[in-house]
Amino acid sequence: MIPSSRTALAAAALIALTGLAQAQTPAAPAAAASAPAAAARPPADPTAPKPFADVIKGATEQPGLFPIWRKDEKVWIEIPKDAFRKPFLFSVNVANAVGERGLYASQMLGDELAEWRRIGNQVQLIALNTKFRSSQPDSKLAIEQAFSPSLIAGVPVASADHPDRKSVLVDASGLLLGDIPGYSTRLEMAYRLPFAPDRANSYIEATRADAQISTLTSRVHFATARIPAPPLVPAPVPTPTPPQATPDARSMFFSFVYSFRALPEQPAAVRHADPRLGHFTEAYSNLGDDLKANPRVHMVARWRLEKKDPAAALSEPVQPIVYWMDKNIPAKYRAAVKAGIEEWNKAFEKIGFKDAVQAKQQPDDADWDNMDSTHASIRWFTGADVGFAIGPSNRDPRTGEILDADIGMSDVFGRGSRRLATDDVLGWHAHEAGEAASSSWMGERSLRLSEQQCRYMADQARELGFALDLLALRDGLDMNGPEAEALAQAVIKDVVMHEVGHTLGLKHNFRSSTTVTQAQLKDKAYTEAHGISNSVMDYNAYNLPLKGEPKASLTNTTLGAYDYWAIEYAYKPIAADQEAAELAKIAARSTEPQLAYGDDLDQGVGGPYDGFDPRTNQRDLGDDPLAYAKKRLKLSQELWERVQARPANLGDDPLRNRRSVSESFRQLVMTANNVSKYVGGLHAERTVPGVTQGPAFKPVDNAQQREALRFIASGLLSSDSFKFKPEFLAAQTVDYNEWDRGLPLSIPDAVAVVQGRVLDRLMSASTARRLIEQANYLPEAQRKGAVSLSEVYGALQSAIFSELKTGAEIDRMRRSLQREYIKRLQAQLNRSTNGVAAYADAFALARWHANQLAGDLRAASAKPGLSIETRAHLAESLELLNSMLKATLVRS
């Protein structure tokens, strides 16, 4: 602090008078000089922290891991001296949010192994680097020097050390009212606007502390100064609208729940993962072991589960896994949610645990929030465009022990008359939410949240809408009757089983549905006892029969064989000296047909991981995915036929038929992707050297590849598969109460999405590579007759342009398909961008077939009797194709 001029002058005068007095005082006698003089009191340091007692005078204490002091709007965290440099788990959840575009309430955001550090009078909250470790003590220092930790937040001390407790205070507002979760980036991704935290209008809204945890909830205001005017000329790339769910698009609040949790004093026992099963893991690089070629270590994520009576065949656990059911869950669904949680006890009983998983209901009048990191919970949330569930968890990075889990379930199950997840559920999908998560403060550890982001609930809701529609029209099922209600309850149980499985440490298993035979799916007794799939961790389709087929269970009601196996591997109590041998024995069962496993990457997530095993899919059913794809088209066609014949009644929802059609096409898009995997597909097996036999990769049978091609040509690419009556289409209205009311229903547009998925896959660089290379995986004797890339390109082009040979008219739907084909062909012929340039054969074949097509277009254009629309289309296609071929020659 700079003193005022008056204060400075007074101080100077005092110094001068003091010096004058000393000069006029006679020297003291020698004896007096030897007497001890009173110590001079040093001047007070104006920058020194205030005494502890002065700071918290009048404040109320919440004792806990880090005691919390509160006085009016001021909040302090007390940090004991021995707590510095002692790791704990720091986690962030979002309790209140915006309700759109991935910014939803009741979500876990992630966690870090953290510690407090004090540098002078500055306190830092540090995220420790757990990505690199060493099993050798003499190399730990080198690793610490090589890899930096990260600063989460820093703040000056708010008090001097307590004289007795040796602790210090920090201002919670200064520490926790910034943008720790990185939400400014998430907001920018959602809206492309520069939102930033506004500390002046943010505050600490709630606190809780006990011996294990200290939790503070920050109410943070994010704002942007202005919303820019829209461009005068539309941008080439559409930009998102400003926030739609807030009263003022420039302002929004989020409530972040920050938990400081003590780590277990005794770390849990580590169990190492096996690639033949699907468990989430805590992974790191062990740089202290130079004998292993691969330094990566993967520890199974699992709860600490120990028997009260280790000698008993069946014993209660010392600490059960307790899920608190959120009070927001509608009362009529609570029994189904509870049943879904406790279904997992069947798997734990198989390995000796009684009541290992428990469900407890949060009282409706409870004044505590289950978002802190000591309450595992099932949370029910809502949003304007939401339709997903997520099962994330917080773990001890040292061991993989799961310490907390908060399953988030959106409210799509509660939307009107069993019509679940309708058109108001817009396009925020799991991968988009995952992209947002990747920009958050946790970095790599946050990516596991996108791993656990799950579309199962939204897909189940859409599928349920399709199923109920078909059953109502076929069998007269009452949408509001007990049978529909029972099915809705069964679906909720199914989804809860799936999400609880994630929080127990299990990944998706997208191959398990193919381990049940078609005969078993038609057997009611079998499906009621065993379900319709061998895992609830798959995205199982509904077991809808074709007209005239026997009825069985429509959805999963119990765990499958894979679920029991995965729980056994992660949780079976095993003596330490026997663990390696016993786990190897359990994992060796992977060759049993019922235990087949394939995860998200096997199913396909895009890019190079496009999914190439047709047995590993979402939303298929039974041991013949190709047969199911054909069945799915037949079921859709039956629904379209019945919807078009449905009479209009007074009081009907005017958008009902549009939703019925939309839901059927949503699932057909996935079916198109699944059936296209057969072409150039590979069967993948998770082999272990020296343990499992057989190849790791094997090309799909030639006959199956060709059958898939025929179904694509005659079914998905044929206009005859998508017939709708003109009077039906003309009768489908829009929502005139809304500004964004929609446009007339367009079947060609819906079909184009389905067919586009086929073209994207069959004309991709990855499919070309696999078709060119698949012969390398076969013995010489089996290579003859293999499906070639030329055969695929030829079959596809012949099916899409079949009218060129017959001279038939080309309807609007087929013209659209042909344009989309030429557009992708153009990308293939662009050497600089096509991604196939590294495969000279693929480029040469694409060019050869393009020349063939140009010739066919010229010949077809000369045929008489064609409509002006067809002739114009042929001329445009030929001109575009010729320019592509000439341009390619110039560039090369």
From TrEMBL:
GO molecular function, one term: metallopeptidase activity
Signal peptide extent: 1-23
Protein name: Zinc-dependent metalloprotease
Keyword flag DNA-binding: no
Coiled coil: none
Aminoacyl-tRNA synthetase in keyword set: no
UniProt keyword annotations, A-Z: Hydrolase, Metalloprotease, Protease, Signal
Species: Pelomonas baiyunensis
